[in-house]
Amino acid sequence: MQGFNRNYSNLFGTEDTEDGEEGETDGGPAEGIDKFAENWGYVRFVDRVSELTRKTWDEVFEMNVYEFFNIIAYAKDKAVAEKESIKAWEKKH
Question: What is the mean pLDDT of the chain?
Answer without folding.
Answer: 81
